[in-house]
Fold:
Amino acid sequence: MILAGDIGGTKTNLALYDWTTERVEPVREDSFHSADYKTLEEIIEEFLSAPLPKPQAEDELGDEPIEASAEGTTEAPELPPEPIKLTAACFGVAGPVIDNRCRTTNLPWFIDGATLAERFAIPQVRLLNDLEATAHGLLLLNPDEIVVLNAGAPPKKKQALALIAAGTGLGECILYWDGSRYRPMPSEGGHTDFAPNSDSEIDLLRHLRGSYLHVSYERIVSGPGLHAIYEYLRDTKKNEPTWLAEKIKAGNPAAEIAEAGLKGQAEIAKQALDLFASIYGAEAGNLALKALTLDGVYVAGGIAPKLLKKLQDGSFMRGFTNKGRYKRIMSQIPVKVVMNDKTALLGAASMAAQLTSSTTS
Structure:
């Protein structure tokens, strides 16, 4: 049995897999609100303490029912669950992973692979940046788990792919072609300097500099970033409906803004989504240019599937292709949205399975 995890600033997803060579469904999976725990170890301990699902009885599988004896039957006493024996574990973590350790960016956690291996008696534990894990999962997706924004015209000879994912933060990754397969190369590109492209974006930068010493793309292209864009529009244009202000105060700000914008219920929310999608596309294009990822750009993370309608209206691709003399090349790059929000978990599982294979081979 292998353990896989996707460790994010908002939630932590864990799953157990009986995985050897091919993609399989998890044996058990659960999600935890990250901020409710002081350490990742607490979450893992809680997750592993739950029993595995019981195998179905033969009659439940459609075979002949089991007959009772003449004396009748008595239920067997409930036995405590056997400890789960893990052969390997891999965790995609939102933050820079150095020497199999990570101090998470949006959580007060320090995660050490060696410490996890010792505490939970796991022979091999590997930490990956969360976008590196997503990149490994990207290579295992089915066609129906992807939506095309731009078909493009990729070159015949494979070169490189890019992956960008907005959620609680903004992650970026490059996948280069080594001659036989794509290999992920993690980065912290989401923390690079925000570069405005219009007067409105320049004003947005000025507004955010009042709150942050350094305005990175993550401060804008993320869940909190959408809220920050909204606050900029609210403070400068003074056109916030009272009902929306109350919903934002009582609920999840980004989710409330997105819903109001997608449904056309409030002009300020629509404007916030316009700015968000345009800047998201611009940074995706920046990433594509820096690595010349002519094979394609994948947009993943928790936000993209929820804002798919917005990403499809052209604002994202206008930001993506708005690169002056390189507009023609940018329009030839395929751009696709990843609809499977468990891609990082899938990638972590595939890497844990590889760790097991390397040990047993």
